[in-house]
Design goal:
heterodimer, A: 501 residues, mainly alpha, two-stranded antiparallel sheet, 2 strands, 75% helix, B: 163 residues, 2 domains, disordered N terminus
Chain lengths: 501, 163
């Protein structure tokens, strides 16, 4: 059994004391930021990128992955207890989860959320282990034209599934591609957009861009907003274990959520948030009595909570097997790999099996850790909500500054990050999503490289992209997606799906 | 979203629409890119020069920016950016200034002074932060950063000024 062999290799890596420690650290940090509103997983992973530079690649990735799914857990805790979604992926959990808490069923809601998440995490880890190898095989057979078309499809799909204006999202991708061009052109050695600044000759560092846009931009946005008064009505958690009735209603919802989340997570642009929204809509549709929703229906917690965790996990599949990030967090993971000199793509699995399977195994371990550490520590996490933002803000600002400096021991990087921070804030104010820009930035160099190679194969004839069947199929799929999203009926449905809350 | 004062000039009110501003931003960046890359050799599709991709992308961006701009002009109910500009400008100024101070002093004056500057300037934007709280935060953060980055990760950052 190849699968068993691979998994035992993976557990061998993931169960070393050091890696267990990093998984635990990631889960704890993730839960922490999941609980705290005002700082999201993207900003945190961006801030910690420079730290992972000093770790083994697999340890760094294990920790970053732990932060990602830890944040889903933490986000739902505050959603249920104080009606504050710590993350966008737990927005829908507020609806029924907090109602349950008000009815004195907080413990039951928390336990259902945690058990559903763990179940979803287990299933989706198995999905990754089973489906990643064959997908990577497909990826390895791709030539430059196919790869270019695949990247186009990935970017288009990311736009379609992002919220907000499609045109703006495409413009943001182009902007990201342009930022990716800054520096010395690898092929012709000509400098592009360096404005005569020598520090820009090597290009813009990915971590600097990400910390600036997400970390610093978020800080400025939070400071510019009046502080929300967070009234913490801590309900006493009477009993943690759900009733038999809750279990009976929750397990089918959890199954449906897991299936839906696993599917939506794989799609480019999908992931945790989309999965949780879709799962809530689905639960409402299949329920015999939809009017119970919004009044503390346990399915409204079990479905979305399972779905967001499943989606968070399976979004690793395209990233690990094809080197294509489906969302901003995966783009950051790709950035983390590149920091270590690992070129993401289908070859990762064959050339670095310990990295790949170690990560997969650590995902399951991380989910188990979250289940064990989270339920007993809920009281402590909620206390953290009382930390005022003025302290958080200064700490985040400082860690961004030091983190950016340590990437290349360069004071210039701090100034560059400040510039991107202002830019990130402007994007937020103008409702321009920064996530597509990050995707464009990461994929840009890859796209240009494959475009150039394809052009050299064909002798400058762009028809090569439609003459190769696989490439043509991918481009047609991308075109269909764009047409579909332009249709008015679909457009309104799409907006509806993102405004369920 | 707040709406501006009624007496505001109509042209200004149009410009404050988010899509109009976003469109202008995209067009501006594209124009800047085209101007900067005007000397880059473009080459041919087989042998793409340094300027091939930059110029292609700038033209696409300009087209998309124009679409966003037109959308903004046509949609009178579009969301506007809020009126009180100075209140929103302050955090930008403070955050940027604190980072610039940190970046410029870290290597010359050391970690302790750079952190003091960052916290000192940064606390100007922290609502309700009392002076003793800022001092406590600075002390705690200096210790923490020293523990993580210098003692823990062994990074070579000067701690004190190099006399």
């Amino acid at each position: 059994m190849e699968l068993i062999n691979n998994l035992s290799t993976g557990f061998g890596i993931a169960l070393t004391p050091a890696n267990l420690g990093f998984a635990l650290a990631g889960c704890l940090i993730g839960t922490l930021i999941g609980v705290l509103p005002g700082i999201g997983p993207i900003a945190t992973i961006a801030m910690l990128l420079p730290l992972t530079f000093h770790l083994e690649p697999v340890s760094g990735l294990i920790m970053l992955a732990g932060i990602f799914y830890g944040a889903q857990y933490g986000g739902s805790t505050t959603a249920i207890l104080v009606n504050l979604p710590g993350e966008t992926s737990s927005v829908v959990t507020c609806i029924d989860g907090h109602q349950m808490a008000r009815q004195g069923r907080a413990g039951s809601a928390l336990a259902i959320a945690a058990l559903g998440s763990f179940f979803a995490g287990t299933v989706s880890t198995a999905v990754i282990a089973m489906f990643a190898p064959p997908l990577a095989k497909v990826g390895q057979s791709f030539g430059a034209p196919e790869y270019f078309s695949l990247l186009v499809l990935g970017l288009v799909a990311a736009v379609v599934l992002a919220h907000g204006s499609v045109i703006k999202a495409i413009a943001m991708i182009i902007l990201g591609l342009l930022f990716g061009l800054v520096g010395t052109d690898g092929q012709t050695a000509g400098e592009r957009f360096t404005f005569g600044i020598t520090q820009l000759a090597d290009g813009i560092d990915f971590a600097v861009l990400a910390i600036g846009i997400f970390g610093l931009g978020e800080i400025i946005a939070n400071l510019a907003q009046p502080e929300h008064s967070r009234s913490i009505l801590m309900e006493k958690i009477a009993r943690l274990w759900p009733t038999r009735e809750d279990f009976r209603r929750a397990w089918p919802a959890s199954l449906r959520g897991t299936a839906l989340g696993s599917l939506l997570g794989v799609l480019p642009g999908g992931g945790a948030t989309l999965s949780s929204f879709a799962a809530y809509v689905l639960e409402k549709k299949v329920a015999r009595d939809p009017s119970r929703f919004g009044r503390g229906a346990v399915e409204g917690v079990a479905g979305p909570e399972s779905a967001n965790n499943a989606g968070a996990q399976t979004s690793f599949i395209p990233m690990l097997t094809l080197g294509i990030p489906g969302n901003a967090v995966m783009a950051l993971m790709i950035g983390a790999m590149m920091i270590h000199g690992i070129q993401p793509g289908p070859q990762v699995m064959t050339e670095r099996p310990t990295l790949f399977w170690g990560m997969v195994a650590s995902m399951w371990i991380g989910n188990l850790m979250l289940l064990v550490i989270n339920l007993p520590l809920i009281g402590m996490w909620v206390q953290l909500l009382k930390v005022p933002y003025r302290f958080l803000y200064l700490s985040i600002l400082l860690f961004c500054a030091i983190g950016v400096y340590t990437i290349g021991n360069s004071p210039f990087a701090v100034l560059l990050a400040a510039f991107f921070g202002v830019l990130g804030y402007i994007f937020m104010r103008l409702e321009c999503e920064p996530a597509p820009m990050i995707l464009g930035f990461v994929l840009g160099p890859l796209m240009e490289d494959n475009l150039r190679r394809a052009m050299r194969i064909s002798g400058g004839d762009p028809m090569i992209f439609v003459q190769r069947p696989i490439s043509l199929g991918l481009l047609v799929a991308a075109a269909i997606l764009l047409v579909i999203v332009a249709l008015p009926a679909i457009r309104s449905k799409r907006e509806e799906a993102f405004q369920e809350s | 979203m707040t709406t501006g004062p009624a007496a505001q000039h109509p042209a200004l009110r149009i410009v404050r629409r988010k899509n109009v501003l976003a469109g202008l931003m995209f067009i501006g960046v594209a124009a800047l890119g085209l101007w900067v890359s005007r000397t880059y050799p473009v080459g041919t599709a087989i042998r793409m020069g340094t300027g091939y991709m930059p110029r292609l992308l700038c033209w696409i961006l300009m087209g998309l920016g124009a679409i966003v701009l037109v959308q903004g002009l046509r949609d009178a109910d579009a969301p506007r950016s809020p009126a009180s500009i100075p209140a929103r400008l302050w955090p930008i100024v403070v955050v940027t200034a604190s980072l610039i101070a940190f970046g410029l002093t870290l290597e010359r004056l050391g970690l302790v002074i750079a952190i003091l500057l960052l916290i000192g300037i940064g606390s100007l934007a922290a609502r309700g932060l009392k002076p003793w709280e800022a001092a406590a935060a600075a002390a705690g953060l200096i210790l923490l950063s020293w523990a993580i980055f210098i003692a823990g990760l062994g990074l070579v950052i000067p701690v004190w000024p190099d006399w």
